[in-house]
Write a structure and sequence with these properties.
3 helices; 16% helix; alpha+beta; six-stranded antiparallel beta sheet; seven-stranded antiparallel beta sheet
Length: 243
């Protein structure tokens, strides 16, 4: 009885998290009056060995060489059969760096916060409130899709490309606490013959700020502490009454 009352009292200070909302056909900063900034990006592209860079990491636009680091990857089996690649896209707040890991290799973009200013961004880590997923399946008859996507412990699901199109999804929600760092994991699936055009098919993962997203929440330590203290005081009084 007393244990149940104690747990109920502690439960009074708990915060309820809202589910992440994923909207198809939307991207960071899309439309008017929507406004946004893409702040951290990870790109997989050029899904046939071309001797060019196939993984970009940095501050969008990743099309600008000064905004990125890159690595070369060996994607496909010789018979172009379906295969998957585990990946991780991460912002490590303690070391202020982005990291992209795939095929057992990791690249880093260091001093991320300071580089945002030098690149001309007006938003930073404290503003992160949106995540964009883009699958471009430009090689007709090929297959590009993502599964097992998990952002900071929350499952996002699977995202499938469509021949000849860019497919965009925007993830927002009041429980998307990206400001103290984030980790996105998933599987990239590829099948078929891809052209030598390096951007014909690609996957882009982007963290940023969007005016349609929630204001990043910072826990009110004082209010939470006061609520917890009140609950414990009530429990103490209850114990004296039951004694």
């Amino acid at each position: 009885m007393k244990k149940a009352l104690f747990l109920a009292a502690l439960g009074a200070s708990a915060l309820t998290a809202s589910a992440i909302t994923i909207t198809s056909g939307q991207y960071i900063g899309q439309g008017v009056p929507a406004d946004g900034q893409s702040l951290a990006g990870d790109r997989f592209r050029s899904f046939q060995p071309t001797g060019a860079d196939e993984n970009y990491l940095g501050v969008p636009s990743l099309g600008t060489a000064a905004n990125r680091v890159a690595q070369q990857l060996n994607w496909m089996n010789p018979d172009n059969s379906l295969q998957s690649f585990d990946f991780t896209f991460q912002y490590d707040q303690a070391n202020d760096r982005l990291a992209s890991t795939i095929l057992g290799s990791t690249i880093y973009w260091n001093s991320w916060s300071s580089s945002l200013v030098s690149i001309g961004k007006t938003k930073g880590a404290a503003d992160l409130n949106a995540f964009q997923i883009t699958v471009k399946q430009g090689d007709i008859g090929s297959v590009v899709y993502l599964t097992d996507m998990v952002l900071d412990g929350t499952a996002l699901g699977s995202f499938y490309g469509v021949d000849g199109l860019n497919k965009d999804w925007l993830a927002t929600g009041s429980d998307m606490n990206l400001t103290d760092g984030f980790t996105l994991t998933g599987k990239l699936w590829l099948q078929g013959a891809f052209s030598s055009s390096q951007e014909n098919s690609a996957v882009n993962l982007t963290a940023g700020w969007d005016s349609r997203g929630f204001a990043p929440s910072v826990p009110d330590g004082g209010a939470t502490l006061a609520l917890l203290s009140g609950a414990l005081m009530g429990l103490s009084a209850l114990r004296r009454k039951l004694a």
